[in-house]
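To fix ideas, we give here one paired sequence and structure record:
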Amino acid sequence: MGSGGIRVRSVVDRYYFAVVGVALILVVVGGVTTYSAYTANETETRNSTEVLSSWESTAEYDHQATAVSSTRTFSAGETLADRSVYFRSVAPVLDGEFEYTYTASEGGDVTANATVELVAKSVDESGTTEYWQFTETVASNGTGLGPGDVLSVSFARNMSEVANAVEDERRALDGPGTTETYFRTTVSLRGTRNGQTVDQRRTYRLPVTFEDNVYRVNDTGPIRYDNQTTEQATRSVAVPPGPLRRFGGPLALFVGIVGAIGLVVSRYTGRLDVSEDERASLAYRRERAEFDEWITRVRAPPQTVEDAEREVETTTLAGLVDLAIDTDRRVLELDAGERYVVHDGDVRYTFEPPEAATVTDPLAPEGGDDAGRNPADGGTAEQKSGSDGERPD
């Protein structure tokens, strides 16, 4: 097993009861969280707006004109429907129809009356000051109206005559202002709607403008009004547990149970025990990483009788490094960490790592193509040893 596994076993063995306590805390926390997530009925109070009743009304104009003479474009008797522009010389009479209907969530019964008037007036640019006005009733109709029923009023007016009348009035008064012409429909309702009394009037407009030999009908499309009767309500709503409680609780419970069982089994089967050789290996690896800058990797050349020296073996790598510091020498690493040597004259100090330390350790300096170079050296082992004035054996 690498030093990582040995280190973990050493820490767990030393703090066994604390680690077991952490696992048991996970079991308790995970169990409580899981229980509360799946059994507790948590609620929260929310305010909401409830619609008690509602209604909506729709008013719309339809219009058309019939050609009274033929041209290359139009044929006499042809109906021109819902156009924005009509020619006065071709189709002078505008036929219109106004329709009103409404819907109600709780029903209704009203009497509806609609009156269509032609209005012509002169106002200032802001529209607040009226200089003159004349009004002409064109058509009217009334009927009982329930939800979905339609009140319809048909009307017709010669727009060439209207244009002439407006122009005559403008010239007669010779006053300031801008002329406006429109059909105005007033709808009055009396009765009940959604169980409430209704007594109201509402007006709708269909503007008409005159330009040379044409008149424009500026229809804006359907006009809608609606209303709702609401009330504020307070309700208690169930709150589902969040993902942290739903998944985190069971996960913590599982990890705690498995961890606690694994620790107890490992303890009593001896899997957490750390031998003396393994402890020595851990001590060596810590020292090797700590004193890496004092150590130079080298390859040992073949030994001859003439190269024999007096050899002294240290018991720890730290002791060998201390000797190197005292003698101002480098520590030489031989055969990829199988032996460390310091040369001092005719004395050679050595240290051999324990057997368990020969395995690869993540803390050990990396080898590879630069195994003979130490980052703190600035050169290879052979170059560095030469600068120390000694030749390694």
